[in-house]
């Protein structure tokens, strides 16, 4: 039978890259770490690590085993959290990753309210423009925006949002005599696009007549960036046209900093999803937070 403490030691060695680093992290001696890894390999009947004088590397079998260990340890922690929460409320750690922009505007305020309701729960929020892997990143929940790619994880739809083509008055005056008023002009505009999208300037859009037509820019984007915040900054500075979430640009449109282009046309609505690992046991922390997030967003929407 596998020893759970040995699994924790193995994970610590992989993440530290050495027995010494793992020992320091766990508060153990290097000899204890080395002994437990040796016993673990004897139980498995295969080597999970290769040793040299300076570093430790993971074997192919060890890499696969490492991912299983992460999942198993996460499941055990969730089960323990549920047992504890039956008597004392939510406890343990809740790790959440979001994009920097949506995280700061929506998720962090919700997390603050959630933390106040569950004072014994530790919360860690990681903002990243990349779709970090839930398992290797040890995330309990990831908030993803846009068209959801195929995934082995569970996904719950939280909300929808519109995406809007926007530009500054400076750009419109300089490049279009402030008359960018039809789809053909928009297609030939100077575009700023998101570098993580495979086809950032190809969209099926709805015309005022209700027709569904293919929108494709006439030329590649002049500027590309890897975050919505950067796209917004480029658009504000007059660099071109950007396609951005309505929740991100509403204030700029309201105060005249940006102009929504072709407001009678509709780009496809995008989803907001809560992703969580596909495990047999979903922790009470995860379930409770996702439900709380959805309820808070519904309250925000009802006030708008």
UniProtKB/TrEMBL annotation:
It holds the Pfam family LysR_substrate. Signal peptide: none annotated. One of its GO terms (molecular function) is sequence-specific DNA binding. Keywords: DNA-binding, Transcription, Transcription regulation. It comes from the Bacteria. Residues 2-59 form the HTH lysR-type domain. One of its GO terms (biological process) is DNA-templated transcription. InterPro entries: LysR-type_TF_proteobact-type (IPR058163), LysR_HTH_N (IPR000847), LysR_subst-bd (IPR005119), WH-like_DNA-bd_sf (IPR036388), WH_DNA-bd_sf (IPR036390). The keyword Cell membrane does not apply. Coiled coil: none annotated. The keyword Transcription regulation applies. Belongs to the LysR transcriptional regulatory family. This is Transcriptional regulator, LysR family. It comes from Xenorhabdus poinarii G6.
């Amino acid at each position: 039978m596998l020893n759970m403490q040995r699994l924790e030691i193995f994970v610590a060695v992989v993440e530290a890259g050495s027995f010494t680093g793992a020992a320091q992290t766990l508060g153990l001696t290097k000899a204890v770490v080395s002994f437990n890894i040796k016993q673990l390999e004897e139980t498995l009947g295969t080597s999970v690590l290769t040793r040299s004088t300076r570093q430790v590397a993971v074997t192919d079998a060890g890499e696969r085993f490492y991912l299983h260990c992460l999942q198993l340890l996460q499941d055990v922690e969730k089960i323990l959290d549920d047992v504890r929460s039956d008597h004392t409320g939510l406890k343990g750690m809740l790790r959440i990753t979001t994009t920097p922009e949506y995280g700061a505007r929506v998720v962090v305020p919700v997390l603050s309210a959630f933390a106040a309701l569950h004072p014994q729960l530790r919360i860690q929020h990681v903002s990243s423009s990349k779709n970090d892997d839930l398992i290797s990143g040890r995330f309990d929940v990831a908030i993803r925006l846009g068209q959801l790619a195929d995934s082995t994880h569970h996904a719950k739809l939280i909300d929808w949002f519109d995406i809007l083509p926007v530009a500054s008055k400076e750009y419109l005056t300089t490049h279009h005599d402030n008359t960018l008023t039809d789809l053909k002009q928009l297609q030939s505009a100077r575009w700023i696009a998101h570098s993580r999208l495979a086809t950032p300037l190809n969209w099926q859009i709805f015309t005022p007549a209700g027709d569904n037509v293919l929108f494709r820019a006439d030329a590649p984007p002049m500027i590309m960036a890897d975050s919505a915040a950067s796209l917004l900054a480029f658009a504000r500075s007059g660099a071109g046209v950007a396609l951005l979430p309505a929740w991100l640009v509403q204030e700029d449109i309201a105060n005249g900093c940006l102009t929504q282009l072709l407001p009678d046309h509709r780009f496809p609505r995008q989803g907001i999803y809560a992703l969580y690992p596909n495990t047999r046991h979903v922790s009470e922390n995860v379930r409770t937070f996702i439900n709380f997030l959805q309820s808070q967003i519904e309250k925000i929407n009802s006030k708008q």
